[in-house]
């Protein structure tokens, strides 16, 4: 009881402090930083729900009282947020006559309840048929809400995707034709210099410049929108799901994925950012939340271990957590590893996890920057748990969203006949990437190496990893449990 009183007193004092600071804010960015500061405090101190909701109400002051655009898409977005945050199907009933959306929207409402709702912060971009809004989950994570309608005003795409804290910049709304040309030409030049497949460099570069000359980007005056259009076009031209253009508003993505904000480039990542993986013109079922740890586990009935990996992360904290999880599951009857929503990550994390499941060192892949270039071999390194875990049956669950590093993990286990793969064919993103700074502080994530089986001289780029047992992603766990039991 005493602890509760103290905690509530702290809450009251903090909320008063937030109110005072909110009145003194000079811009929205200060508000965003304060939201992060106080939300983190309440997560760390295990705040009671009532006090947390009071905090959220006070934090609204720090957002600059977000105003939805008065446009058709702005009105649609307002209705979406009101419906999802209230947990009611008002938006579904008013805007979705197609019953095929009902299950999806119900899942969306469940997600909204799980994360405490979504708070709009900054419009990323808007067109007559699309709107994209940087938002904050009320439990602390950043996402982008994307809505799209067709020419008749019917909703054709709706999703919540992982994102980062946005940074406003001059070209977000005021991009000129000359600046657009600078950005596109710098990207084309970078493809010509460093794209992994030498014989395709000129083809991809020239096609991008051709689209520029044909007026594809003439009317794009919003920087975030240009980045999304260029990302979509690059993937359409190359069928390479790693290629991505990052606008200045997402410089934090460059920092998080590559470790720095640089003048040139740095290669450390072979992942695919789920935040921009698919802008699908159809019912999208990749609702995601960042409010999860990269690797989690639980013990299911009949001594079955179940591991979910959202992203392969390689740092000391995750290394220790992985070791703790597998130590806890070393006597399992079987282990199921769910990668159906895994967005890739660090290749070192893949090697670290694979090393637990092979008693002896195993050659995994080779990688090269060119067909005739030097090959770098990658081997597992057994540890103190490898002997115990190497004999436990493994089942890996996959989907079409399983990508990059998650595909590498799946590919190696399948090639070594170490696991049964259940689900859908994976995305087919087998290249490693580097980030390059382009004109006007835009960035290009470019494929600069490819991974392959050194024995067969083939990989999974463009083809994906096919499952041993094909099911939908929703049925994969049930199938794995039936086999494990």
What tags apply to this protein structure?
4 domains; six-stranded mixed sheet; 485 residues; 16 strands; Nuclear Transport Factor 2, Chain: A
Layout of SSEs?
Blueprint: H1 2-24, H2 28-45, H3 49-59, H4 72-86, H5 90-95, H6 102-114, E1 118-126, E2 130-137, E3 142-149, E4 155-162, H7 177-194, H8 198-213, H9 223-238, E5 244-246, H10 251-258, E6 265-269, E7 295-300, E8 304-309, H11 316-328, E9 334-338, H12 347-354, E10 363-368, E11 376-379, H13 386-389, E12 394-398, H14 405-415, E13 419-423, E14 431-437, E15 443-452, E16 469-470, H15 473-484
Parallel strand pairs: 8-9, 9-12, 12-13, 13-16
Antiparallel strand pairs: 1-2, 2-3, 3-4, 5-15, 6-14, 7-8, 10-11, 10-15, 14-15
Helix pairs in contact: 1-2, 1-3, 7-8, 12-14
How is this structure best described in words?
The protein has 15 helices and 16 strands. With 485 residues, it is α+β, with helices and mostly antiparallel strands. It folds into 4 domains: 2-63; 72-163, Nuclear Transport Factor 2, Chain: A (Roll); 171-269, no CATH class; 295-429 and 464-484, 2-enoyl-CoA Hydratase, Chain A, domain 1, CATH 3.90.226. Strands 5, 6, 10, 11, 14 and 15 form a 6-stranded antiparallel β-sheet that branches. A hairpin with a 3-residue loop joins β7 and β8. The longest helix is centred in the N-terminal third of the chain and has 23 residues, at 2-24. It is globular, with a radius of gyration of 23 Å.
């Amino acid at each position: 009881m005493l602890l509760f009183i103290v905690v509530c007193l702290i809450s009251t004092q903090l909320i008063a402090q937030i109110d005072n600071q909110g009145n003194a804010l000079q811009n929205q960015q200060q508000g965003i930083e304060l939201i992060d500061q106080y939300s983190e405090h309440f997560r760390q101190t295990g705040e009671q729900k009532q006090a947390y909701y009071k905090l959220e109400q006070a934090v609204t002051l720090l957002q600059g009282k977000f105003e939805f655009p008065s446009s058709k898409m702005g009105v649609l977005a307002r209705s979406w947020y009101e419906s999802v945050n209230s947990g009611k199907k008002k938006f579904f009933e008013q805007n979705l006559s197609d019953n095929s959306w009902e299950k999806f929207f119900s899942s969306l409402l469940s997600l909204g309840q799980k994360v405490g709702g979504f708070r709009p912060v900054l419009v990323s971009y808007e067109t007559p048929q699309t709107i994209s809004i940087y938002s904050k989950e009320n439990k602390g994570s950043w996402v982008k809400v994307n809505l799209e309608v067709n020419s008749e005003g019917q909703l054709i795409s709706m999703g919540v995707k992982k994102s980062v804290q946005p940074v406003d910049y001059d070209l977000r709304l005021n991009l000129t034709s000359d600046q657009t040309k600078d950005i596109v030409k710098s990207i084309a030049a970078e493809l010509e210099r460093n794209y992994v497949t030498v014989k395709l460099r000129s083809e991809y570069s020239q096609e991008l410049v051709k689209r520029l000359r044909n007026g594809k980007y003439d009317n794009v005056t919003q920087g975030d929108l240009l980045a999304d259009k260029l990302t979509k076009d690059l993937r359409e031209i190359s069928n390479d799901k790693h290629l991505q253009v990052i606008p200045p508003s997402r410089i934090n993505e460059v920092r998080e994925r590559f470790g720095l904000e640089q003048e040139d480039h740095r290669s450390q990542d072979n992942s695919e950012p789920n935040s921009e993986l698919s802008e699908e013109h159809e019912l999208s079922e990749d609702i995601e939340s960042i409010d999860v740890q990269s690797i989690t586990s639980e013990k299911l009935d009949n001594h079955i271990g179940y591991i979910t990996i959202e992203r392969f992360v390689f740092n000391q904290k995750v290394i220790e957590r992985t070791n703790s999880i597998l130590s806890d599951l070393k006597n399992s009857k079987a282990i199921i590893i769910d990668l159906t929503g895994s967005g890739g990550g660090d290749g070192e994390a893949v090697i670290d996890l694979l090393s637990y499941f092979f008693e002896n060192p195993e050659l995994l892949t080779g990688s090269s920057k060119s067909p005739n270039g030097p090959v770098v071999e990658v081997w597992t390194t057994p540890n103190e748990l490898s002997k115990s875990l190497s004999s436990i049956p493994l089942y890996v669950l996959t989907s079409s969203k399983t990508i990059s590093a998650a595909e590498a993990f799946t590919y190696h286990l399948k090639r070594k006949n170490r696991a049964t793969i259940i689900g859908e064919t994976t995305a087919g993103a087998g290249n490693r990437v580097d980030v390059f700074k382009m004109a006007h502080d835009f960035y290009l994530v470019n494929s600069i190496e490819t991974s392959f089986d050194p024995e067969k001289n083939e990989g999974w780029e463009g083809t994906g990893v096919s499952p041993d047992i094909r099911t939908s992603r929703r049925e994969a766990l049930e199938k794995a449990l039936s086999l494990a039991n």
